[in-house]
């Protein structure tokens, strides 16, 4: 038996329930994993609220770190006792123990703690595919990154610094601006208290001021609807808008607008298309962990909640009370 967070209807954090569930032995191609830390990501809120439809009742979460307890037939690349993490697992990570596909597991190297890995699995590999694959940064660029003090944002700040990239980051408060700058963000734009009209005017103005009027070659925008126009107006001619999230609401774009704003490229990437097949995922993890082991990227949770307080973790994340990564502890 194991404890697991499940929900039987979509809605607010109150729909999350701690339940006791049966966990059997792993079948062919599977492992049984005992979690140590489970990451809380904004995508979990999308599943809970029904923005991303999912059959109910359901578990929640797809990003965790733990220890392999048992392996099923045909699994020869991990063994009982191995420390592993994952970010592409099926929903159900908010639990003590689970049976899951072995192919999504990423071995953790010595020198990377479970606690650190829990903050870096989804968030670190998101920074990797955004910066190294979606729009490959070479060093020397100036970029705009929204939500620079968030979980992915703080990793992105450090990765930009490691690459020699000048990051302009938007944050919601001066306190978060200080955190982002401490992690390597070169310039911050505090958007807290701005009206939608202010965002459209002030963000591009500051970006043009910093870049000498040129704008940036790429904007990474996880906010969505509220920052769309500001992002487009911050781009240089033939720049790229990477729409990698919609925390403020979905993005709807008339493609004519992309021409008007300077023949802009727009992409909406998904992790699964960059981290598969498994060899791609392992190569991404190798690059991430090389930075961690060299001390160029540090990941530690800024907020921790016990599993039974998963609803409180969601409330904190939704209310923008958090900075950096949030995890559930087991």
UniProtKB/TrEMBL annotation:
SUPFAM superfamilies given in the database record: GroES-like (SSF50129), NAD(P)-binding Rossmann-fold domains (SSF51735)
Keywords assigned by UniProt, alphabetized: NADP, Oxidoreductase
Domain Enoyl reductase (ER): 11-328
PROSITE patterns to which the protein is assigned, alphabetical: QOR_ZETA_CRYSTAL
Short name of any one Pfam family annotated for the protein: ADH_N
Entry annotated with the keyword Oxidoreductase: yes
NADP found in the keyword field: yes
Domain of life the protein comes from: Bacteria
UniProt protein name: Quinone oxidoreductase
Taxonomic lineage: Bacteria, Pseudomonadati, Pseudomonadota, Betaproteobacteria, Burkholderiales
């Amino acid at each position: 038996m194991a404890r697991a967070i499940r929900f039987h209807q979509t809605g607010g954090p109150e729909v999350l329930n701690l339940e006791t569930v049966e966990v059997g032995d792993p079948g062919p191609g599977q492992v049984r994993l005992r979690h140590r830390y489970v990451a809380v990501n904004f995508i979990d809120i999308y599943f809970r609220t029904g923005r991303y439809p999912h059959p109910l009742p359901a578990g929640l979460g797809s990003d965790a770190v733990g220890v392999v307890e048992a392996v099923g037939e045909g699994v020869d690349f991990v063994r009982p006792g191995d420390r592993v993490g994952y970010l592409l697992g099926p929903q159900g990570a908010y639990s003590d123990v689970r049976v899951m596909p072995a192919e999504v597991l990423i071995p953790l190297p010595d020198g990377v703690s479970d606690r650190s890995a829990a903050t870096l699995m989804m968030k670190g590999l998101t920074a990797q595919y955004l910066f190294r694959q979606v729009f490959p940064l070479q060093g020397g660029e100036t970029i705009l990154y929204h939500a620079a003090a968030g979980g992915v944002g703080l990793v992105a700040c450090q990765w930009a610094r490691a690459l020699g990239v000048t990051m302009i980051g938007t944050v919601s408060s001066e306190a978060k601006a200080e955190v982002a700058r401490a992690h390597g963000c070169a310039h911050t734009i505090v958007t807290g208290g701005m009206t939608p009209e202010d965002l459209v005017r002030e963000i591009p103005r500051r970006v043009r001021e910093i870049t000498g009027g040129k704008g940036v070659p790429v904007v990474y925008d996880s906010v969505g609807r509220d920052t769309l126009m500001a992002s487009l107006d911050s781009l240089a001619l033939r720049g790229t808008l990477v729409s990698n999230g919609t925390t403020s609401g979905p993005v709807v774009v008339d493609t004519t607008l992309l021409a008007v704003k300077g023949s802009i490229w727009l992409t909406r990437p998904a992790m699964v298309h960059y981290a598969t097949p498994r060899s791609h995922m392992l190569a991404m993890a190798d690059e991430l962990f090389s930075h961690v082991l060299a001390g160029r990227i540090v990941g530690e949770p800024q907020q921790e909640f016990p599993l039974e307080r998963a609803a409180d973790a969601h409330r904190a994340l939704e209310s923008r009370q958090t900075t950096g990564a949030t995890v559930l502890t087991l």
